[in-house]
Amino acid sequence: MTDPNKKIMKDNTVILHTAALALLPLQLLFSVFLLLRGHDEPGGGFIAGLVGAGAVVLYLFAHGVDATRRIMRFDPRDLLGIGLFLGTVSAFPALLRGEPFLSAQWWIFDLAGTEIKLSTVLVFDIGVYFAVVGTILTVVVSLTEAEE
Amino acid sequence: MSTEVALPVFIPLLAGVLSLMLWRSRKWQRRLAVLATGLLLASTLWLLRSTLDQGYVVMQLGGWAAPFGITLVADLLSAVMAVITGLIGFAVALYSLGTIPDRHEKFGYYPLMHLLLAGVAGSFLTGDIFNLFVWFEVMLLASFALLTLGGERAQMEGAIKYVTLNLFSSALFLSAIGLTYGLTGTLNMADLAYKLSQVEHTGMVNVVALMFMISFGIKAAAFPLFFWLPASYHTPQVAVSALFAGLLTKVGVYALYRLFTLVFVGDTGYTHTILLWSAALTMLTGVLGAAAQFEFRRILSFHIVSQIGYIMLGLALFTPLALLGGVFYLVHNIIAKTNLFLISGLTYRLLGSYDLKKLGGVYRERPGIAILFLISALGLAGIPPLSGFFAKFLLIRAAVEIEAWMAVVVALTVSFMTLYSMIKIWAQVFWKPVPDAVDATRLRSRERDPGMFWLLTPIIGLAALVVLFGVWAEPLYQVARDAAEQLLNPAGYIEAVLGVTP
């Protein structure tokens, strides 16, 4: 790194630094919110994944690749693999009940007075979420590392 | 419940994902590749067994009844193609263990291979035209990546032609799907066949049929838009070439078989005459192109094109015997052609080149390999008692029966010229002495090469099948006959999917 102008971001932007720290958890929470409301209302795994990846990418622009890798703990490629895995296995539980592949299975129960609905659809959506986050972060991290 | 019809799609899909999760460990990816393709082969055999028993195996994915949901359906043709997919997948997975360089494995060779197999199996088993498009794209996406893996100059050059023409074909396919939906309001193939059989055939239906024909024709590498194939198939790793040669173009042919026996049968005098001319020209141009080549894999690539012509001929003649011959030819051709590509990789390993001028002396040093080549090559050319003989015999007899003399003459001429090409390879690679400038130490060395086991096992297995389908052709003949019968009676297919009798 010789020419500072070639950096993706300049490291003197205090506002971005601070804002990224504050926005990261908020955006991640918002992405989970989008993911869970997705079944009946606008939202879902794909858009939630984009928002979640956006949060990390913003942090990456402010603090650089190394810091981002530290807070992520996972390699984004693993996230991608886990996501695709969840998406694929959600097709199989239907088999145990003797129904065709991909038939949605529901577990509905009461938790402290609230009706909770869990389903293979949700598993699939979570898979999509991880796959999207994993893909975008793999691309962005590799590009940034290639740049440095 | 008919789980077996979904397994050939889901096994490679799951294997691809698991392989991606294991990206750190090449060792486990390799084990998984063999295990998963082995399971794929087993599941397709199970599917073939049930299809032989029940005629049609149907699953409505997610429990959504046809024509609203996506249907997976296997008739005998689909089941046979699925078995071949499993077989070629397994053979290529074994072969990959000995030939794919570490760098390619690291960049995701195995996940892509599984994804490609999932796309191919999905295309063979889906009963929905739009879903067919999706599986085509899955397959093409994986093939784009496999084709350019390694990033050599020649690969990029070939890939540009490959990608451009295939994207054009996909766009055409999608437009045709849109028009079909506008005309009929359905994309389920059985429902489509039923609806089109109820109304008078109009010019618009022929337009759509031709759009599908051109689109699948490009993917099958039929005349006139075949040149992307010889430009690209000789550039990637041999295992990839072999996989493409065996399966990819055949998916295009299969789609032609499916649509032009099930859906677009209202005006066969028009559509199937075009197919006949295209088939004849495909055979001729392919074999003439091969005559001018002096690169092992390029010769074989041109022969893929000419063989596609034979298979299309079976569809174009559209008699029970011709379709029987076509199905038989498909099976024979996939096995023999894949094996020839695998053998070209073997001689490359021994002599370090694909150029016929820089090869030689294999028969003298390794007669076993030469015999394996001879079996596959003569099988391809149609010498009795190998599998190609019956395939060609059935097709040509079908053409004689309906007095399509042009087809007979072309098919016989092309057969002779195929033999000429195979003899050219034989003379150059196996018969003539090693050229002076070539380093033949590997060829002459008597040391055991541990990787060789993985190359020879699939080659010997496939060569054995070429012999088996020649000397004991009866079982395959019967399956192909029943498959042809099903193709000529779309009512059974429609009833199996929709549950109504047209």
UniProtKB/TrEMBL annotation, chain B:
Family of this protein: Belongs to the CPA3 antiporters (TC 2.A.63) subunit D family.
Protein name, as recorded: Na+/H+ antiporter subunit D
Keyword entries, A-Z: Cell membrane, Membrane, Transmembrane, Transmembrane helix
Chief location bin: membrane
InterPro entries, alphabetized: CPA3_Na-H_Antiporter_D, ND/Mrp_TM
Localization per record: Cell membrane; Membrane
A cellular component term, taken from the record's GO annotations: plasma membrane
Membrane topology: Multi-pass membrane protein
NCBIfam families per record: PRK12663.1
Residues covered by the NADH:quinone oxidoreductase/Mrp antiporter transmembrane domain: 128-418
Signal peptide range: none
Stretches that traverse the bilayer: 6-23, 32-48, 68-95, 107-126, 132-150, 162-183, 203-226, 238-257, 269-292, 304-328, 334-351, 371-396, 402-423, 452-473
